[in-house]
Amino acid sequence: WLGIASFGVPEKLGCTSLSLNGRQKDLCKKKPYLLPTIREGARLGIQECQSQFKHERWNCLFSPETTTSLSTNPSAITGEPRSPIFGYELSSGTKETAFIYAVTAAGLVHSVTQSCSAGNITECSCDPKLQSGGSASEGWHWGGCSDDIHYGMWLSRKFLDGPTGNITGKAGRVLIAMNLHNNEAGRLAVAKLMSVDCRCHGVSGSCALKTCWKTMSSFTKVGSFLKEKYENSVQISDKLKKKIRRKEKSQRKIPIHKEDLLYVHKSPNYCVEDRKLGIPGTQGRVCNRTSEGPDGCNLLCCGRGYNTHVVRHVERCECKFIWCCYVRCRRCETMTDVHTCK
After folding, report:
1. Burial class (CB in 10 A: 0-12, 13-18, 19+), 222
2. Which Pfam families would you find in this protein's record (predicted)?
């Protein structure tokens, strides 16, 4: 379904023209007015994934030479150069797979819930449960328009969770269970990070009474939360019995929480290009020579070293308004060292 984020005006294409599975196409035909919101959810997820990983070896992109059509849950994704989508990672069962599923499920919740609050979807609006009541003793009451995350959660599950014929066998069942868990972990992240905003009322701003409502956090905050979960993700067994369990036998008594991100397989080597898997490698990536973090030349270039070249920037500067009536500027030139991985 992420493929629809690459189309400019999806509603004009029609549901049958989009890379959706049968269940998703049925929902699309019944509720075509949801397409712009679904597209925005896909865009949010893709954009946040690239933002969170932009300085790391895996940067949420794949090799533009890869043109393989991959059929995976939640839908068929076509790896075309025009589309910043994920190729191999959607079916690899790695930590990166876990993050992709979580952040895109969260993106759909966030987009739908925002559309509800803005009055763009007739089936939902503000949260009706938070229209009255509060605490008179503490001087506040519910009011305004609280984000109704319940409809967003429901639609995200309806659109993304469900049976798929593309992943089969025992190993496939583990991947399906993993993906469904990570979808829900992404949705729960949006719910967990909701906050309460209030507005004061009273004489001369005394704040004798406050009107409060619930609102979602920015999606950047949701992305950061999920990135932290990615860093602490849990590897699970590739054999699915009664329930998902940790891979390490010594850790199986430690419970798996609903908010944890789960993966089955260890990540591949993202340092070196692998066209078969759609891994671009890090050669040519811009790195920070002075950083000790993942964007530093030592880590990002995987010990291969880096090239340095000088880039010249020319821009207008020291602009002044001359009476009357034009602006006079100087032409400033700066030279910057840019480092790229060998």
Report:
1. buried
2. wnt
- Using CA atoms, how far apart are residues 339 and 342, in angstroms rounded to an integer? 9
Whole-structure pTM value? 0.83
Residue type, 21: N
Decide the pairing of beta strands 209-215 and 140-142: parallel
- Decide: residue 237, CB within 10 A, 0-12 exposed, 13-18 middle, 19+ buried: middle
Percent of the chain with pLDDT over 90: 51
Interval 88-143: pLDDT, tens = 677 789 999 999 999 999 999 999 999 999 998 888 888 887 777 777 667 777 88
Domain with CATH 3.30.2460.20 in the chain: 286-341
Q: Which residue has the tokens 């300085």?
A: 55
Tokens of 136: 């008179």
Give the Cα separation of 42 and 103 in Å (integer).
9
Q: Which residues touch 262 (CB under 8 Å, ≥6 apart)?
A: 98, 178, 181, 182, 185, 233, 234, 235, 236, 244, 256
CB 295 within 8 A of CB 56: yes
CB burial of residue 267 (10 Å; 0-12, 13-18, 19+) = middle
Sign of the alpha-carbon dihedral angle for 219, 220, 223, 228: negative
CB–CB of 89/16 below 8 Å? no
Looking at residue 318, the DSSP 8-state letter turns out to be E
pLDDT for the residue numbered 122? 85
Distance CA(144)–CA(98), nearest Å, equals 36
333: which strand partners?
314
CATH number among 3.30.2460.20, 3.30.428.10, 3.30.830.10, 3.30.70.640, domain 286-341: 3.30.2460.20
Question: What pLDDT, on a 0 to 100 scale, did the predictor assign at position 73?
Answer: 33
Residue 66 binned pLDDT confidence (cut-offs 50, 70, 90): very low
Please check whether residue 216 is in contact with residue 147, taking contact to mean a CB–CB distance below 8 angstroms.
Answer: yes
